[in-house]
Amino acid sequence: MKLSMDMVTSISVCTAEDMNWEGGGNCLVVPLYRKEFPLNSALLQEEEELVLQALVDREVLTGAAGTCYYLPAPSRPYSGVLVLGLGDRKKATAESLRRAVGKAASLLKANRVERIGVDLVHFPELPVPAFVESLNLAQYRFDTYKKEEEKPAPAVREVVLVVADSVDKAALLEAAERAAFFSVAANGARHLANTASNDMTPAVLAAAAQKIAEEGGEQCTCAVLDQQRMEELGMNALLGVARGSGKPPQLICLEYTHPEATRTITLVGKGVTFDTGGISLKPGAKMHEMKFDMCGAAVVLATMMAVTRLKPVLNVISVVPAVENMPDGNAQTPGEIVRACNGKTIEVLNTDAEGRLILADALAYAVDTWKPDCIVDLATLTGAVVIALGHVAAGVVGSDSALVQSLVAAGESTGERLWELPLWEDYEEMMEGTFADLSNIGPEREAGTITGAAFLKAFTGDTPWAHIDIAGVSYGIRNKPYLKPEYATGFGVRLLLEWLTGRTAQSGQASE
Ligand code: BES
Ligand code: MN
Ligand code: ZN
User: How far are the Cα atoms of 42, 176, 293, 432 from residue 166, in angstroms, in the given order?
Assistant: First the structure.
């Protein structure tokens, strides 16, 4: 998988005395909470301090959340000072810092800054991991299809964290580097998702997974089931969706195992490389956005890439059903009935509800093959989740509340919010078929996200399962300055990595 080069490559920690400003393109970053004057910096030279204080007096600089000011300082050891507005101290969170850093990133870029010294001497409480990851996310650029000269100038390559002597420098560096790596993985998912659908086919997704396995070493293997193998296994729900496309479907199984692992976790990601709706064709406006219908797959694969490097004491299995949903003379038509690999029959009343059809076979196969302790799927499954939660949170629905809560907690810490929706039996009844066991759509447009999840539940057996509907958060985010609305967000990568390797996973572990 190609990872973007626009990321922080080097992080170091030092005290104010040891700060070395040699070389050009240096910028001192001074945090400022709202109305907490005077500026509090261990590194600011007197001259700049005076200029900035004058700006404070004129209320140009207020420290309001997300406000930034760049002051060039050509005669100094640093070539500029960036004042980073953090807002009210009482309201400050990791997410408010991420958003402020997102704004700062554009200013740093405009001023061609390549190296920053972040003055944390008087700000030991600042969540440094959030700083580093939001800088990485903000600096990500997708320019695969741009001419060389249109490609943007280099961004910040080096971050020096300037701290008080009492700070545990090694621990801070480790936390910062871990966050940087999480965001590099998220950018990897964004890259897969941003790639045009003619270049991001099911076969290309499979090749990306194979590459992750090769680079992942002996703890990692990849098996891709082709159409013939899926026919033998009776995966007719998945195969039905693929029938209209000339691009053959792939069931991508990427496994990471640890010799001391006592738990097996399965991640499943929807990989519809383009969703036209099939014979139940989507309207033309915005249809191009349906290249993002493989964001679940991209997130799961990028998470696996990171897992193979971080090597947690877990078995992590990922299953990605990859297809293209097209209308064609041979495409599936509404009313067809298919039998999934677990024997359940499904009436396909709408060929645009294809995500649940491919996930049905993927979930049933995963549960049966690996007998995991839990299974989590991510899918751009329903437009309804955008109606329910907007672009602010993903919907989460599951059969095990401890599992769901552990995911919600992980998302809270990474700024990738999940909001649980209920899964009462009433919803499962709404998915019963007239002529088959199940229908692939519910009545009218009622509770669309939950009925989608209720359908999936029928393929998870007794395995604790959670489904994350990322349709609203995978692209088109306008209020997070560290993302770009035109780009895929990689939503879920940092959440899953935090959940798999951080404290939140342990809470899920303890309660299952
Ligand atoms: N991929 C779409 C869901 C989607 C919609 C993702 C908007 C991102 C933005 C999915 O396959 C779909 O078409 N779902 C249908 C389900 C319906 C037919 C029950 C929908 O949401 O309209
Ligand atoms: Mn669809
Ligand atoms: Zn879809």
Answer: 15, 18, 48, 63
Q: Assess contact for 294 and 193: CB atoms under 8 A.
A: yes
Q: Which atom of ligand 1 is nearest to the CA of 272?
A: 1
Domain ranges of the chain: 10-187, 195-511
pLDDT at 3: 43
Mean per-residue pLDDT for 12-33?
A: 95
Report the pLDDT value the prediction gives residue 1, as an integer from 0 to 100: 39
> What is the number of the ligand 1 atom nearest to the C-alpha of 325?
11
For the residues 214-232, what does the mean pLDDT come to?
Answer: 97
Residue 119 Cβ contacting ligand 1 at under 6 Å: no
Q: One-letter amino acid identity for 430?
A: M
Task: Compute the distance between CA of residue 109 and CA of residue 106 in angstroms, rounded to an integer.
Answer: 5
- The order of strands in the sheet holding 336-339 is 336-339, 345-348, 438-439
The pTM of the whole model exceeds 0.70 = yes
Quick one: which of 296, 13, 411 has its CA closest to 177?
13
Q: Answer yes or no: are the C-beta atoms of 238 and 230 closer than 8 Å.
A: yes
Contact 255, 221 (CB under 8 A): yes
Q: Could you tell me if the CB of 265 is within 6 A of ligand 1?
A: no
- The pLDDT tens digits of the residues spanning 27-52 come to 999 999 999 999 999 999 999 999 99
Answer whether 94 contacts ligand 1 (Cβ < 6 A): no
- pLDDT of residue 58 exceeding 90: yes
Which residues belong to the active site?
Answer: 282, 356
Mean pLDDT to the nearest integer, 12-22: 96
Average pLDDT over residues 105-133: 97
| Span between the terminal Cα atoms of the chain, in Å | 34
Nearest CA owner, ligand 1 atom 14:
382
| Predicted confidence (pLDDT) at residue 376 exceeds the cutoff of 80 | yes
In this prediction, residue 508 carries a pLDDT of 43
Alpha helices in 415-447 (DSSP H): 425-429
From the CA of 453, the nearest ligand is 1
Q: 431 in helix, strand or coil?
A: coil
Q: CA torsion sign, 180 to 184 to 185 to 186?
A: positive
Check if 439 has its Cβ closer than 6 Å to any atom of ligand 1.
no
* Radius of gyration (C-alpha) of the chain in whole angstroms: 24
Domain 195-511: give its CATH superfamily.
Zn peptidases (3.40.630.10)
**Would the pLDDT of 470 be above 90?**
yes
Is 70 exceeded by the pLDDT of residue 511?
A: no
Q: What residues does 317 pair with on adjacent strands?
A: 255, 266
pLDDT of residue 6: 55
CA 442, CA 450: separation in Å to the nearest integer? 10
Q: Are domains 10-187 and 195-511 of this chain identical in fold?
A: no
Q: Which of 475, 481, 416 is nearest to 108 (CA)?
A: 481
What superfamily would CATH give domain 10-187? Leucine Aminopeptidase, subunit E, domain 1 (3.40.220.10)
Give bridge partners of residue 377 from the DSSP assignment: 268, 467
Q: Could you tell me where the DSSP H helices lie in 234-354?
A: 236-242, 295-310
